[in-house]
Write a structure and sequence with these properties.
- This protein has about 375 residues and is mainly α.
- The chain has 16 helices and 3 strands.
- The two termini are about 25 Å apart.
- It binds coenzyme A (COA).
- The site of coenzyme A has 17 residues, from helix 15.
């Protein structure tokens, strides 16, 4: 007789409530996303990424003095440890997310609080990781392009400093604000796969770097953060010089082959992803400014087609692709950039998990061979 003590799970844990959290509110039917009660549209219009970090970590907006303190802490943590930079240069060329995963792990070895799992130490590590992952990704972009690293500029904001460390040029206020908004939009999203991975790891009371490494590895997948790079590859394959009808042909053919179109569909939203609303506009404005409206136009055609054929909405990854492209960011860095932002949410969730922890250890619905099977000795099989 086979014994199954657990109930049948919903595939992919759809709609399963796995924890209580005070960080992110999502209403998939109304298209609402709010961090600690603050609507994402208000934050995207008025806040800075640094304010959002404070909000996620403290559950309230900072005073001017508190924001200044946090900015100073982030600036102080921007330079990367020299051995981590050396390791970066030694890694074989390849997927930037693989490098980010390895280098995030390496950061743990050189953290001043490496052996301290207390709340104050973990908060300091959350701040440091947020600053360092930004420096890591910008520097990775340079090293992968055969260029030397650029030292951080302490007078620049988090968003502007990232673009500066990547390109070596002080970004325009339009580019800085666009990137700042992109960081705000990606900062947290409740129990998305990478955040859940981080919480499961943290719930064993392992260290914060280990939890973040789990999150980075999870974000890499094409069903999660990897989709933004896949969107841009799709657009580039169609080609800037092709007529817009070609975009429709290519997507129709994919749908006919039952392939998924990157950047569409969402487990939680049954309506427009509120982040896509901002990114669509940013893609249009930045594409026009860059003299390359084609990527936005092509994206619009694809969006209309997928909506009419499959009733699927664009998600956060669809228009972030053409937005990042217009900012001059290489495709290989698109998913790492997701981590530059989401590190704020990951660390907020890890801190929340530590603060009220119980090991996360669910059950499986057993569907294997009938129990008991008779053990047959090796010689008799
Ligand atoms: C996000 C995603 C993983 C959600 O997955 P999910 O909730 O498990 O939904 P499913 O994969 O079960 O999809 C349900 C149906 O919609 C279809 N579908 C979902 N996303 C699709 C897409 N992007 N393109 C085409 N069809 C899609 C599925 O083929 C399936 O159709 P079926 O019922 O006829 O088999 C999924 O929509 C997807 O793979 N999107 C593309 C990758 C992406 O953009 N990821 C970033 C998410 S923010």
């Amino acid at each position: 007789m086979t014994t199954t003590t657990a109930a049948k799970p919903k595939a992919g844990l759809e709609d399963t409530v796995a924890t209580s959290s005070a960080i992110c509110y999502l209403d998939g039917d109304r298209g609402v996303l709010a961090y600690c009660g603050y609507d994402i549209h208000d934050l995207a219009r008025h806040a800075t990424f640094e304010e959002v970090c404070f909000l996620l970590w403290h559950r309230r907006l900072p005073t001017r003095a508190e924001l200044g303190d946090l900015q100073s802490q982030l600036v102080a943590a921007r330079p990367l440890p020299e051995p981590v930079l050396r390791l970066m240069r030694q890694l074989p060329p390849g997927n930037a997310m693989d490098a980010l995963r390895t280098l995030t792990s390496a950061l743990g070895h050189y953290d001043a609080d490496a052996n301290d799992n207390s709340q104050p130490a973990n908060y300091r590590k959350a701040v440091r990781l947020t600053a360092q992952i930004s420096s890591l990704v910008a520097t990775l972009g340079r090293v992968n392009a055969g260029q030397g690293p650029i030292a951080p500029d302490p007078v620049l904001s988090h968003a502007a400093n990232f673009l500066y460390m990547l390109t070596g040029e002080r970004p325009s206020s339009l580019a800085t604000r666009a990137f700042d908004v992109a960081l705000i939009l990606h900062a947290d999203h409740e129990l998305n796969a990478s955040t859940f991975a981080a919480r499961v790891a943290a719930a064993t009371l392992t260290d914060i770097h280990s939890a973040i490494v789990a999150a980075v590895g999870t974000l890499k997948g094409p069903l999660h953060g990897g989709a933004n790079a896949d969107v841009m590859r799709l657009l580039l394959d169609i080609g800037a010089d092709a007529p817009l009808e070609k975009a429709e042909e290519v997507v129709r053919a994919k749908l006919a082959r039952k392939e998924k179109i990157p950047g569409f569909g969402h487990r939680v939203y049954h309506t427009e992803d509120p982040r896509a609303t901002h990114l669509r506009q940013m893609s249009r404005d930045l594409g026009q400014r860059a003299g390359q409206p084609i990527w936005y136009e092509m994206s619009q055609r694809i969006e209309a087609l997928v909506k009419s054929e499959k009733k699927l909405n664009a998600n956060v990854d669809f228009y972030s692709a053409s937005t990042y492209h217009a900012l001059g960011i290489p495709v290989d860095l698109f998913t790492p950039i997701f981590a530059v932002s989401r590190i704020s949410g990951w660390t907020a969730h890890v801190l929340e998990q530590y603060a009220n922890n119980r090991l996360i250890r669910p059950r499986a619905d057993y569907i294997g061979p009938e129990y008991p099977q008779r053990y047959v000795p090796l010689d008799a099989r």
